[in-house]
Every structure is written in structure tokens, then in C-alpha cells.
Amino acid sequence: MKYTKGQIGRVFLLKFDNNDILIQSLSNLAKDERIKTATVIFIGALREGDLVAGPKKPVIPPKPNKKFFKDGWEVMGIGTIFSNSKGPQIHIHASMGKNDKVLTGCLRGNSKVFLVIEAVVLELKGVKAEKEIDPKTGLNLLNIL
Q1: Domain range spanning residue 140?
Q2: What pLDDT sits at residue 52?
Q3: Which tens digits make up the pLDDT trace of 63-107?
Q4: Residue 81 in contact with residue 26, Cβ under 8 Å?
Q5: Phi and psi angles of residue 144, each rounded to the nearest 5 degrees, phi first
Q6: Is residue 3 domain-resident?
Q7: CATH code, domain carrying 18
Q8: How many structural domains does the chain have?
């Protein structure tokens, strides 16, 4: 295990509207506000999108078990923002439900908001970390500097 320590910097309260693209909107906020490291927590609903619900088999490099969802799901999640030379790297894990179905995994791409998502972004100051592609796994992993 490696670690670094820092302090909470600015705090942002966000309200995402119907059809906003969650990850892209968070990336835009990080760029506009020059957020380098942060954590995100949120509740609300997603209209549609995709996520990775673990690997197909527990091998390295893993092959993602992709799931698509649509028609509005209640959601809660937590994530991180770490910037590198390519810009903000958003990593969100969420659990969502609809009727008696539940999905949990890593949100991807163009997941769209249904009605509203409320979020809090806590900026982390003094933390020396970034995301980089790990050559062994092919994943965009945290690198503590």
C-alpha cells in the first residue's frame, strides 16, 4: 500500500439536469475550475448508459463485463477525479436499481441523467497523485507520486 495526505480544498455542490452526460459534465467542471484531485458523491437517477460490472474472469489483463441500462434507474455513487497530461480522469462506481433489478459497477462513457442528480465534489489539496495507463493491466490506475 502507498499513500499520501492532504486537505479538503473547495467544495462544489452540483445539480445535473435531465439528459446531462454525467462524466462529461464532471470533466468540464474539473477543467473550468482547474480541479486536479477530488472525490465525488452523488444521488439521483440515470436515464441510460453503460457500466462495467467486474471482469468476465479474474485474470490480468481483465476483460470487462459490460452492461447497458436504459429507461431510468435510481442511482447513488462515489468517484474520483485525478488529472494528468490528458486532462481530468473520472472514475465512478455506482449502484442503481429499477423495480427488482440492481446493477453495480464502474460507470462509463455517455451515461445520461434522468430528471436530476445531486452531487458534492470535495477538492483534495496537497495530494500528489495522478492516473496513468498501467502497462500490465491496461487500466487507467491511480499512481501516488
Answers
A1: 9-144
A2: 96
A3: 999 999 999 999 999 999 999 889 999 999 999 999 999 999 999
A4: yes
A5: -85, 125
A6: no
A7: 3.30.1330.80
A8: 1
Q: What is the mean pLDDT of the chain?
A: 95
The answer for residues whose C-beta is within 8 angstroms of residue 142's C-beta and 6 or more apart is 80, 82, 129, 130, 131
CB 35 within 8 A of CB 124: no
Residue 78: helix, strand or coil by DSSP?
Answer: strand
Question: Would you say 35 and 88 are in contact if contact means Cβ atoms under 8 Å apart?
Answer: yes
In a domain, 4, yes or no: no
Polymer length of the chain: 145
- Tracing cell 499513500 back to the chain, one arrives at 3
d(CA 93, CA 79): 6
In a domain, residue 1? The reply is no
- Predicted structure pTM score: 0.92
Answer yes or no: is 109 within a domain: yes
